[in-house]
Amino acid sequence: MKNGGAVGETPQEELATGERSTRTRVARSILDHGPSTVADLAGRLGLTQAAVRRHLDALVSDDVVEPRDQRVYGTRTRGRPAKVFALTDCGRDAFDQSYDVLAADALRWIEENAGGEAAVAAFARDRMEAQAGAYRRAVEAADPAARTEALAKALTADGYAATARNAPVGEQLCQHHCPVAHVAERYPQLCEAETEVFSRLLGTHVQRLATIAHGDGVCTTFIPKAAHRPTRRSGDRPGGGPGGAGTTGDPVKSGKNVKTDKTDKTTSQASASTAGRNPA
């Protein structure tokens, strides 16, 4: 019931605050779950699709999100790809409180004064090894079939908003946020070191399919179904010696063939060289 035309009316500033709050929830949902359709967002947030579209229009206008065709991994279906909405660099910046410029300056100094790209790569590996301890504990405590999910939860605790999902011949580890994405644009060694650590933690060759640092909506890593052998320690590199991400030191039976250490090392080097870059 209204009283003198005042009761029941919402001040304009309260409406504006509510609108901003809902738009922040929409943007946050995209950050946490990756590029999303209108239906995805409506279901997660309990909003109508019409309301979601209205908020997305405003976020697109503010350069917080952008529409794009949904990427399809594997067999394409008929018809046009679904439209999804992804965060722009500006949208990610709104959630980032990292010192991107300082980090980039530090890596540039290392590159110029302490040994070039090799020194940057050594720093990136050391940084990831420092983070990997907590990830290793989570992975080793999980059942073999749940280790990708355990790694995703550990990454989420570190701010990567990670999820694991089934793929036709394996699993995909998806990181919907990357705190160092802007720095990794200039220094892909950060992505390469991360891929190597994932390989050792899961005990198998993994393949980086996409990265936020190179314009994709999600950092996506493919783990084959043969994964989840015993995890390797930091000193145990694929093939029994120093090297990048790849398979374990033991030969891997795959159908009719048995891969040799030499084959594993070749595959490992190819994986590390493409880590952090878009698939061709």
Automatic annotation (TrEMBL):
Extent of Gly residues compositional bias: 237-247
InterPro entries recorded: ArsR-like_HTH (IPR011991), Carb_Metab_HTH_regulators (IPR050313), WH-like_DNA-bd_sf (IPR036388), WH_DNA-bd_sf (IPR036390)
Residue spans of biased composition, Polar residues class: 268-280
SUPFAM superfamilies: Winged helix' DNA-binding domain (SSF46785)
Protein name: Transcriptional regulator
Transmembrane intervals: none
Pfam families: HTH_24
Domain of life, per lineage: Bacteria
Residues covered by region (Disordered): 1-23, 223-280
